[in-house]
Amino acid sequence: MKVARFHTPGDIRVEEAPEPVAGPGEITIRVRNCSTCGTDAKIYRHGHHHIRPPRVMGHEIAGEVVEGTGPWAPGDRVQVIAAIPCGECRECRRGRMTVCPNQESMGYHYDGGFAEYMAVPAKVLAVDGVNRIPDGVGFAEASVAEPLACVLNGQELARVGEGDDVVVMGSGPIGCLHVRLARSRGAARVVLVDINAGRLEMAAGLVHPDAAVHGEDVVEQVLKLTEGRGADVVITAAASGAAQEQALRMAARQGRISFFGGLPKDDPIIRCDSNLVHYRELTIVGANGSSPAHNARALGLIADGSVPVTDLITHRLPLEEVLEGIAVVGRGEAIKVTIEP
Ligand SMILES: [Zn+2]
Ligand SMILES: [Zn+2]
Fold first, then answer.
1. What is the whole-number distance in angstroms between the Cα of residue 212 and the centre of ligand 1?
2. Which ligand number lies closest to the CA of residue 87?
3. What is the pLDDT of residue 332?
4. Distance 125 CA to ligand 2 centre (A)
5. pLDDT class of 167 with cuts at 50, 70, 90
6. Which residue, among 202, 232, 213, 220, has the nearest Cα to 169 in the 3D structure?
7. Distance, CA 230 to ligand 1 centroid (Å)?
8. Is the pLDDT of residue 203 over 90?
9. Which ligand has an atom closest to residue 99 CA?
């Protein structure tokens, strides 16, 4: 079979590999869609300390069961989690699976979905990490359940709800999912912010925020749009310390700020006016991936139409063109790129 394997930074090869065989407690799937995201572009450029090469990449996975076990039979349509909690540590036992210190990942510790066939590790099945794709949901859409699950975790932690004014900074695929999810959770107004005017325009044309804002003075623009109050929730969906600092300045009293996107490892320090946090009773939250339960619920949100994703999938490419797909993502020219091995 054909796979796309990471060897070293800058070196991902589409090459032949033996088809996987299901070990004890495992299933194998015929991968139908594996979507790409900024993480793949980052791995391609810099590698990742959890990846021992050569490794088949790809972590936004949907396909058909080939070899089943337990409730899974050949032909079943399934979506697979990306982040694998251990299920046994103190955090996992308290239901905090997104911060499991023993977390492993598909495409990092295990071969991922940029392949015609893939084995689903027993550890994934043990934590209910395989979800049945509801009728009417395509494989491409189902593969977007993984990033949507991460977005869902972020908005739960930031308590996005009825009547909130929400600002989303960063108009990539994650930003677009944040806009749609905030709407489905009852946000009053949603403002989308980006420094890249072209990308902002493309994203705004799809997800229709109440306002699309760019430029040097985004804080002032958001304050103006919110009658001087600021936003109840500000979500930074960009690897930008400057955006995080702006987020703190545009939050309303008792506002919640989600540092959804991480910062570069070599530059993770920002300046924070602690008195803003103190007097305005701000809450700053992080977000680290998603739990198996978030994946199941994200798939439900796609299936029942709460968060449509079909129109966010702008590129569908065969496995041979995975490098082109990652390049398109890196250049910010696409919303969602999905690979169809
Ligand atoms: Zn991803
Ligand atoms: Zn754990």
1. 24
2. 2
3. 83
4. 15
5. very high
6. 213
7. 30
8. yes
9. 2
Is the omega angle on the peptide bond into residue 341 within 30 degrees of 0, that is, cis? no
Q: Ligand 2: distance of its center to the CA of 303 in Å?
A: 29
Q: How far apart are CA 124 and CA 216, in angstroms?
A: 45
Ligand nearest to C-alpha 289 = 1
Least confident of 37-46, 252-261, 269-278, 305-314: 37-46
- pLDDT number for residue 330: 85
Pick the closest to residue 223 from 246, 198, 199, 195 (CA basis).
246
99 CA from centroid of ligand 2 (Å): 8
Rounded to the nearest angstrom, the distance between the alpha carbon of 124 and the centre of ligand 2 is: 12
Ligand with the closest atom to the CA of 127: 2
Mean pLDDT of the chain: 97
At 299 the pLDDT is 98
- Enter the pTM of the model: 0.97
Residue 255: how many other CB atoms lie within 10 Å: 26
Tell me: pLDDT of 333 over 90: no
pLDDT at 44: 95
Centre of ligand 2 from the C-alpha of residue 52, in Å: 21
For 34, list phi and psi in degrees, rounded to 5.
-135, 115
Q: How many angstroms does the Cα of residue 143 sit away from the middle of ligand 1?
A: 10
For 260, the 3-state DSSP assignment is coil
* Torsion 220-184-131-322 (CA) sign: negative
Q: Is the Cα dihedral 248, 252, 256, 258 positive or negative?
A: negative
